[in-house]
Structure formats: structure tokens, C-alpha cells
Design goal:
The chain is of the alpha/beta class. Helix content is 57%, strand content 9%. It has 27 helices and 10 strands. Strands 3-2-1-4-5-10-9-6-7-8 form a 10-stranded mixed beta sheet, sandwiched between helices. Helix 2 packs parallel to helix 15, helix 3 packs antiparallel against helix 4 and helix 4 packs across helix 17. The radius of gyration is 37 Å and the shape is elongated. The relative contact order is 0.11.
């Protein structure tokens, strides 16, 4: 029975054993005995004296604005899945991943371990009234460590030898003593000379501390409600016991806290409340009952931490959080049928003893509060994110509300900064450091991947549906590119994909489908997945905003028939399609592009055809737009696409020149109208960059275009469907001396207001 129950990290290992099989009551007792702890006895009078009755009640409300959302989040998460050993750490690590969860878990464990020492030092305060008697009797000045060190050993050794069972039995006794001491306190009368009629809701002591200073001192009183969660590995039914026990402890503690501060305010002067940390014994029917209650309260809080902290560390070892394999195995080992964490109990005892010998944990206590805030904020954030991720596997039988969890996470961060900005930042720095260390150990883990993928999926789904419902028809004056391109020549030319990437950089959306000819079967599907990985890797290297995928189809025509009907990545229908061919391709390629354009024309989309050469858009500094009399529908689209293009960093500083070709006899009026259209569009084209040319026949225009645009980086021209039907691929072969040419057809004129 004394050997380790299992090796760490294996399936069905240490954290999957049934433990002691406790019911709900130990969860409640561990929580309530920690809630009714040292802060309640020693600092609630201080709170009432320094911030008044209303202020003390506000502190209780504010503290529970953290603990209630956290308790609800724990109840929700615990009813969704089996919660194994490690309590809060297990919940966080199985939601955020064991790297981020490990960083939070280490901070949580240190908080729990140091809290053992903190409570034992507070336990020694219960004996401070005996300090004079002790010194008179022994001649030795009283040192609280005379009580805290033996008391800690007396606490650790039985738990180490007998396991958690003896700790739970002690909790029954402690809870009974606490109940009696509180009853005697509430039965007490005001101190001599105090007039209850002088009670004021807002009055404070003469030399009072600020509200958030008091809150920071009192806040540890609210951290005990999750103590029972750490027993998760020893519970018969964690899904039932954790939410019931945690919520019950939170509710009972809230009610008792309110009654205590009201009783204090009506029983002693404010200055006495602010200065005498044991003022409750002056009010109780029998004063020593408060000292006994304080001793039991601090002892119970210490017991709760002694039971919980080793199990947190055991779970961290089981998840191989630390970089030393042997250390992880030793920490994860459990003993006996109940898998008692003896090794981690020894570690916890050593840490607690070291802090007790130091005797001053004020600075450490502030950091502990921050780590608890981080833990509670993380639990609330998990619940909030799970609501939005809407994963089918997340089906808790108890549900909180998303806004409650969001508020809990936000209030934790806010209070951290209010309580102590320096320690808040220090705790976050420590967390980041721990994360970086653990990340190097767990190189293969993708933190937050599943949850945030679900969140992004839900957000995308929601926005797509809203867009479709609110914009059933894309208005022409709101036109932005939503381009789809189907191309089988992805990996032997880069210009087409680059142009899509540039056009969709900021203002638009792009979908690029690599075409694979053939019928869809197991082999072609497997090939498509391999190609998709190459596409995604290419997009990652280029920092491309274009959505990349593959499409298996018997022909390009059937591929277009499928792809042109599906919505784009924006959730709305695609409004533009792009084709490409190289000036070095065989004539059949250009002829195929012409056929595909005629096929796509039935969709009423803008069509873009890129004829690219060897210069790959040259220096990307000049764009020439040629507008003819037949481009009334195309002109605005051509100018808008050029404007969008120079918004990309690769085209930074590029200049746009427009050549407007109109019949000679009407060039004056046509020119004025064109200038007005450019001016209304607020486009970066000045009058000096617009050149008007009197049109002759097509043959006469050829040398003019060659002379002016032969050396530019991109030339933009329009074309019409009627022209394409009549002349076919010849439409795209004109002006052969130009390098890269973008042919544009707009089915209707867009407004640029």
C-alpha cells in the first residue's frame, strides 16, 4: 500500500484514481472553513473602522463580484467534464492547454503553499494575549514562531502519514468550533460606553486608510470559496460535489460577512474597530471563544491549503510541467489506494516552514492575492470563451451567463491594477516568464487552439449571417473587391496570385482555388490536401490575406460552374473573378481564357484578365489606365482597382496616369465630364496626370499606346463581352509590346462618391 499508485503521465495514471471518494460536504467544509478565516476575525473590524459600514459592505459586494462569477464558472466547467486531481489547475489546463495552464498552475500552487505559512502565522496571533504571561513565566520574549512552527509541523505530519482523510475529519471539528464562536459573537453586547444610537452608515475613523488599501488587505478573505475544488481527485462525483459545495460555501460566507460587519458597526467605536484587531473578543459573550475561533479558523484555512496545494503540484507533475523528467515523476507519484500526494506534501511543508521562519509575509501576501486574481480571472475567461466557442463537446449541466463570466474576468483585471499596480505587473511578468520556460518544455502543444478556433468560427458564422441578412444586395456605391480565382498554374507563375493578394490587402476579400483536373476520389482528395498544405504554407510566407484552397473537377468549366456560385470568404457573393495567361503561353491558353470569360459573364461579375510577362510588374511604380469611349461602364472600375492596388506597401509611391481616348469633335465636353468623375471620386489623380487623346481607328491607337506605356509596370484596359464574342482571344492579344496588362470588364458602372 505504500508504493506509488501509478506512473505519471500515463493514461489512467495518477490523476485518474478515485481517491477517497468524498461527497459534497467536504467541498463545502473546505470552502466555508477557509472563508471564515483569519481575515474575518482580524481585519473586518479594521475595514468597518476605516471605510465605514457602507464601505465595508461595498468591499464585501466587490469581493463577491469576483468570487460569485468564479464560483459560477467553476460550477459550469466542472459539470461539463470529469474534473480530476488538481482542482482549479486541472480546469484551467484542460481548457487553456497545459503550457498556459502550467504557468497559472505554478503561480496558484505557490499561492496555496505560501498561504499555509500565512495562516499559521495568523494562527499564532490567537496566542498574542498570552505574550505577557509567557515572558513573565519563562523570562523569554514571546515569539509567534514558538506557536507557528510547531503548529505547522503538527498539521503537516498527520496529513503526511494518514492522508487527506484525517484532514477532512479535522474540518468537521473546526467547523463546529467556528459555528459556536460566531454564535457567541452575535450574542454579545456593545463594548462598555458605546452608544448604538451614534451608528452612522458613512462615518469613518479619524486617521483612516483609502478604500482600495483596505480592500487589498481584506481581499484574501474572499479567496477561500474555491478551496474545496482542490479535492476534485478525491471526490466520488466531482460534477455534482464541486458546484454544489462551492456555491453553497460562497452563499453562506456572503451572508455571514454582512451580519458580521453590521454587528461590528453597532458594537464598538470606529477608532477602536480600526486599531484593535481582536476587537471581536470584546463584543462576544465569552471573549476567549473568539481566540479559539481565530485559532480554529486559521487552522482550518491552513488545513484547506495543506490538502489542496500538494494535489495541485501533483497534477502539475503528472502533466510533465517541469523541465526535469525525474522531478515530474517524483511529484506525480501517489501512495496507497487513495493516491495520496505524500511527495508534494513534503515539498509544500518545506516551503511553508521556510516562510514561517522568515516570519514576514506581507509582501508575499500581496503577490499571492494577485496570483489568486489571475486564477479567478482565468476561470471566468474560460467560461466566457466557451460560451462563444459553442463547441458541441461543451455541454455543462449547469450554465452560467456569458456576461457574468466576462464581467468576472474584467473585474479581476481592474481590481488587480487598483489594489497594487506594481505587484499586478510583477505577477504578470512572473506569469509570462513561467509560460516561456514551460513552452520550451512542451514544444508540440498548441495552446488555446481548440477553444479559440471555436470562438473564431462562431464569430465568423455570426458575422456572415448578419452580413447576408443586412445586405441582401451589394450596392454599387459600396463596391469592394471580393475576388475568386480558379487556376491550375499556381506553382509555375507568381504574378496572378500576387495581383489577387495586392487587390485584397486592405479593402477586399480574395479566394484562390488551385484547380486539379480529375474526378473526386480517395486519391485525388488526398492529393488536394497535400496541395492545400503547400498553398497555406505559401500564404503564410507571403503574409497573404487570400483564402487558399483546392478544387478537384473534371474540367475548368465545371470547376468554374461550382466555384462561381459559392459565397466568398466575406459571407457575401463574390463580385469579381480573375483569369490569367502568360504572353509566352500557347494560343490555346488565351483562347481558353476567352471561353471561360464568356461562361462567367452570365454571373454578372466583374471580370479581370491578367496578361503577364517576364518583368513581374517591374518596379511597381507606374500604372497607366487607358479609357476609351466604349469604357463608360469600365472606367470607374479601372480607376478604383488601380487606387486599391497602390494602397499595398509593394506599390508604395506608385503614380497613376490616365489616358482618355475620345472622339476628336467631342473631346472638350467628354474631357470635362471625365474630370468631374475623377474629382468626385477623391482619387489620387491630378489633372496633370490625365491626358486626353483624340481617337482615330484602332490601328492608329496602337503606336500611341506602345509609345506611352511600353515601359510602365502595369497597364489597365477595358473590354466588353460583345467584343469578346466577336473577336475572341484577340481582345487580349492587342498591344503585344506591353509587359503586364490587366483587362477589366464591369457589368455595370459603379459609383465612386
Amino acid at each position: 500500500m505504500g508504493e506509488a499508485a501509478s506512473s505519471p503521465g500515463e493514461s489512467g495514471g495518477a490523476m485518474s484514481l478515485p481517491g477517497h471518494g468524498f461527497s459534497t460536504l467536504p467541498v463545502f467544509l473546505a470552502g466555508i472553513c477557509t472563508v471564515l478565516g483569519a481575515i474575518m476575525f482580524l481585519r473586518f473590524g479594521y475595514a468597518v473602522g476605516n471605510v465605514g459600514l457602507v464601505g465595508a459592505c461595498a468591499i464585501i459586494v466587490l469581493g463577491h463580484l469576483v468570487t460569485i462569477p468564479t464560483a459560477l464558472a467553476i460550477a459550469e466547467i466542472a459539470t461539463n467534464r470529469k474534473v480530476e486531481g488538481g482542482g482549479e489547475y486541472f480546469i484551467i489546463s484542460r481548457s487553456f492547454g497545459t503550457t498556459i495552464g502550467g504557468a497559472i498552475g505554478i503561480a496558484l500552487y505557490l499561492s496555496q503553499a505560501i498561504s499555509v505559512a500565512f495562516y499559521m502565522i495568523a494562527f499564532a496571533e490567537a496566542f498574542s494575549p498570552m505574550a505577557g504571561w509567557f515572558q513573565d513565566t519563562t523570562g523569554i520574549p514571546f515569539d509567534p514562531r514558538f506557536i507557528s512552527v510547531p503548529g505547522l509541523l503538527a498539521l503537516i505530519v498527520p496529513v503526511l502519514v494518514k492522508g487527506a482523510g484525517i484532514g477532512i475529519r479535522v474540518l468537521y471539528v473546526v467547523a463546529s468550533v467556528l459555528l459556536v464562536s460566531l454564535v457567541l459573537f452575535f450574542m454579545g453586547s456593545p463594548v462598555d460606553g458605546f452608544d448604538p444610537d451614534t451608528v452612522s452608515l458613512t462615518a469613518v475613523a479619524s486617521d483612516h486608510d483609502a478604500f482600495f488599501v483596505v480592500f487589498a488587505i481584506v481581499f484574501p478573505a474572499f479567496t477561500g470559496m474555491t478551496a474545496g475544488v482542490g479535492l476534485s481527485g478525491d471526490l466520488k462525483n466531482p460534477r455534482v460535489s464541486i458546484p454544489r459545495g462551492t456555491l453553497a460555501a460562497t452563499a453562506v460566507g456572503l451572508v455571514i460577512y454582512f451580519f458580521i460587519v453590521i454587528k461590528l458597526a453597532h458594537s464598538a467605536p470606529l477608532d477602536m474597530l480600526a486599531e484593535d484587531q481582536l476587537v471581536m473578543r470584546r463584543i462576544a459573550v465569552w471573549g476567549p471563544a473568539i481566540l479559539i475561533g481565530l485559532g480554529c479558523a486559521t487552522l482550518s484555512s491552513a488545513i484547506g491549503c495543506v490538502l489542496v496545494a500538494p494535489r495541485t503540484l501533483q497534477a502539475l507533475g503528472d502533466d510533465r510541467t517541469f523541465p526535469w523528467r525525474a522531478a515530474n515523476g517524483w511529484l506525480a507519484s501517489g501512495f496507497g489506494d487513495a493516491n495520496d500526494p505524500r511527495n508534494t506534501t513534503i515539498v509544500t511543508g518545506v516551503i511553508a516552514l521556510a516562510i514561517v521562519f522568515l516570519g514576514n509575509v506581507n509582501a508575499v501576501a500581496r503577490l499571492i492575492s494577485m496570483f489568486f486574481m489571475v486564477t479567478y480571472g482565468s476561470l471566468c475567461a474560460i467560461s466566457f470563451l466557451e460560451h462563444f466557442a459553442a463547441r458541441p463537446s461543451y455541454r455543462p449541466s449547469f450554465r452560467s451567463r456569458w456576461w457574468v463570466s466576462l464581467f468576472g474576468a474584467a473585474i479581476c483585471l481592474f481590481l488587480m491594477l487598483q489594489m497594487d499596480p506594481i505587484f499586478a505587473l510583477l505577477s504578470l511578468v512572473v506569469m509570462v516568464g513561467l509560460y516561456q520556460i514551460i513552452k520550451r518544455t512542451k514544444k508540440a502543444e498548441g495552446d488555446l487552439a481548440a477553444m479559440f478556433q471555436g470562438v473564431l468560427t462562431q464569430a465568423t458564422r455570426f458575422m456572415h449571417i448578419k452580413l447576408q441578412r443586412r445586405r441582401e444586395k451589394i450596392e454599387v456605391d459600396e463596391w469592394r473587391p471580393s475576388i475568386i480565382m480558379v487556376n491550375g498554374r499556381t506553382f509555375d507563375r507568381s504574378s496572378p496570385l500576387d495581383l489577387v493578394r495586392w487587390l485584397c490587402h486592405r479593402f477586399g476579400f480574395g479566394t484562390y482555388l488551385h484547380y486539379i483536373e480529375g474526378r473526386l476520389d480517395a486519391a485525388s482528395f488526398e492529393e488536394s490536401r497535400r496541395v492545400q498544405e503547400r498553398l497555406i504554407d505559401l500564404a503564410r510566407k507571403q503574409h497573404s490575406p487570400v483564402y487558399m484552397d483546392t478544387l478537384v473537377s473534371p474540367s475548368m468549366t465545371s470547376a468554374l460552374a461550382q466555384s462561381l456560385q459559392v459565397p466568398g470568404v466575406s459571407g457575401l457573393s463574390n463580385n469579381a473573378t480573375m483569369f490569367e495567361f502568360s504572353r509566352h503561353d500557347e494560343p490555346e491558353v488565351a483562347a481558353g481564357v476567352a471561353r471561360h470569360c464568356l461562361f462567367a459573364a452570365s454571373t454578372d461579375m466583374t471580370m479581370l484578365v491578367l496578361r503577364h510577362g517576364d518583368l513581374h510588374f517591374g518596379q511597381r511604380q507606374t500604372i497607366h489606365i487607358w479609357v476609351t469611349e466604349g469604357d463608360r461602364a469600365n472606367a470607374n472600375m479601372m480607376i478604383l482597382l488601380s487606387y486599391i492596388l497602390i494602397g499595398h506597401p509593394d506599390w508604395r509611391g506608385a503614380k497613376i496616369r490616365v489616358f482618355a481616348v475620345f472622339p476628336g469633335e467631342g473631346i472638350g465636353e467628354s474631357g470635362r465630364e471625365f474630370r468631374r468623375r475623377v474629382s468626385r471620386g477623391r482619387l489620387p489623380i491630378s489633372d496633370k496626370n490625365i491626358t486626353f487623346i483624340a481617337s482615330g481607328d484602332g490601328e492608329a491607337l496602337q503606336p500611341e499606346v506602345a509609345k506611352r506605356s511600353e515601359d510602365v509596370d502595369l497597364t489597365v484596359m477595358g473590354f466588353s463581352v460583345d467584343e469578346l464574342r466577336e473577336r475572341g482571344a484577340e481582345v487580349f492579344s492587342r498591344h503585344a509590346g506591353l509587359s503586364d496588362v490587366l483587362f477589366v470588364h464591369a457589368p455595370h458602372e459603379i459609383m465612386i462618391e
